[in-house]
Design brief:
136 residues, five-stranded parallel beta sheet, Rossmann fold, single chain, 5 helices, globular, alpha/beta
């Protein structure tokens, strides 16, 4: 689906197997002639920071339900190890205050995570295509 973007890495911080499956499907590629995106899913904030430092991803997806840090603290830490990473923040507990604070602190895309995953896959596909196209 997204393979024409020269195999950029994507890191996902989540403990939710359903969200991981959605993102894995979005970044997978059925065409055997084109390599899939490099994709790493991690379950803890320290693992996320290590993966970002090691892989230098162009996109980091953060499921705030998996983070043990406040959103702005995590953003500062992510940007300290990979300043050019684009962060997509999935908020399990959306508030306008949280959204404003995160946007002011460098979140490129903020999504209030819906209870149902139906629309999440298409939204993430559109977001990732746009972000990865601009980094290719």
């Amino acid at each position: 689906m997204l393979a024409h973007f020269k195999n950029p890495p994507v890191v996902l911080l989540t403990r939710d197997p359903a969200l991981e499956a959605i993102v894995r499907h979005v970044v997978s590629e059925d065409d055997a002639d084109v390599p899939p995106l490099r994709f790493s899913s991690v379950a803890t904030t320290p693992e996320c920071l290590s993966a970002v430092q090691l892989l230098h991803p162009s996109v980091v997806l953060v499921d705030d339900a998996a983070s043990d840090r406040a959103g702005t603290q995590l953003l500062h830490e992510l940007h300290a190890v990979q300043p050019s990473a684009r962060v997509v923040y999935l908020a399990a507990h959306h508030t306008l205050e949280l959204e404003g604070e995160l946007r002011r602190n460098g979140v490129l895309v903020y999504l209030a995570r819906p209870e149902e995953t139906e629309g999440l896959e298409s939204a993430l596909a559109i977001i990732l295509q746009g972000l990865l196209r601009s980094s290719a």
